[in-house]
Amino acid sequence: MLSMNETAGNTCGRDVYIVDCIRTPIGLGRNTGSLHDIHPVSLLSYVLDSVTSRCNVNKAEVEDVICGIVTPVKEQGANLPRLALLKAGYPVHVPGVQLNRMCGSSQQAVHFGAQAIASGDVDMIVACGVEMMSVVPMGSDCDPELFQISATPKELKFGKFPYKLLHQGVSAELIAEHYKISKKEIDEFSVESHRKAYESSKKGIYNSQILPIKVKKGETETWFKHDEGIRYPVDTEKLSKLKPVFKRDGVISAANASQISDGAAAVLLCSGEKVKQLGLKPRARVVTRISIGCDPVMMLDGVIPATRKALEKSGLSIDDIDVFEINEAFASVVLAWKKTFNVPDSKLNPNGGAIAMGHPLGATGAILMTKLVNELERTNKRYGLQSMCIGHGAAVATIIENCNWKREKL
């Protein structure tokens, strides 16, 4: 564990700072959702414009835009971030690129951007993500054969595959069984996600991080300002009676898994030199960036080794971390992580997670980073850790430090 005066981080490379971050409200991922009628290019362009204008950064200073998109086809294809940055008023010399690391895509965009800055290749990058699941359904970019669940290794079009092909929901069931997590624990966690998200929204905790979007409701234009999936109070009796989706006697239902959603978010990353040159006020320092692979069958508990590796790399202990954002792909994933590290409830997803708010796949990593930066500032806490599980067995983890943290007087 570091002393209060020591600073965590890598031993080489330049410091990388988050200067600003912004997200849209998260919309329901169906044709009645508030964001459904907005084109993905337009939705991303809103946050790309806001993330620079809010801190008076000239868009010409940005040297790349890296965007996470999990289903990069049709409306979300054709190098969408290049189109979105041009629509947002960035000059033509700014390039854009899209990447797919499944659910960890925009968190990986933050990693790639931070790595480019740390190496000295660039000084300013926007890492971002967008996903309109109501417009481009999940799985539209792959061979349907990969969605045919197989309990044993099988022969595929591309040859013999050495692992079982399981739906992520089946893996969530395996995790619940392996870590001895009950249906009661899972449902209670889901209710808490909604409660925390509802109370945070009601108190205005999200206001500083959400970019209101003008939408049409019938013939009327209105401002969409709040995450649309939050439901509270929850009918706990109804929730407990919902049928499991992936296993006859299982524990995973629609109520304790992440919601299908629409949304976008952007994070402005700068080198220390650029911060000084432009007189910017950094909000957080990127301490550690980790990407790992894990068992493709269990698939979703990679957040555990990713967290361990991030802590080891930073020189921090689990007790040094003040706020954790562990993506709520399924309640069993977060509960397995919590049982492993024995983290207090108050530190874990303090303002709710994807079970309540939604999970617009390619955008969620940048959304969680935006939530984490704001929560560290709001509570005057120092270190935050974010981790996300990824399909086919992988995970990402990031540790950041609040640049405006002030040690409390004894």
TrEMBL record:
One of its GO terms (molecular function) is acyltransferase activity, transferring groups other than amino-acyl groups. InterPro entries: Thiolase (IPR002155), Thiolase-like (IPR016039), Thiolase_C (IPR020617), Thiolase_CS (IPR020613), Thiolase_N (IPR020616). Residues 16-272 form the Thiolase N-terminal domain. Keywords: Acyltransferase, Transferase. The keyword Acyltransferase applies. Residues 280-401 form the Thiolase C-terminal domain. The active site is at 103 (acyl-thioester intermediate), 359 (proton acceptor), 389 (proton acceptor). It comes from the Eukaryota. Pfam families: Thiolase_C (PF02803), Thiolase_N (PF00108). NCBIfam families: AcCoA-C-Actrans. Belongs to the thiolase-like superfamily. Thiolase family. This is Predicted protein. It comes from Naegleria gruberi (Amoeba).
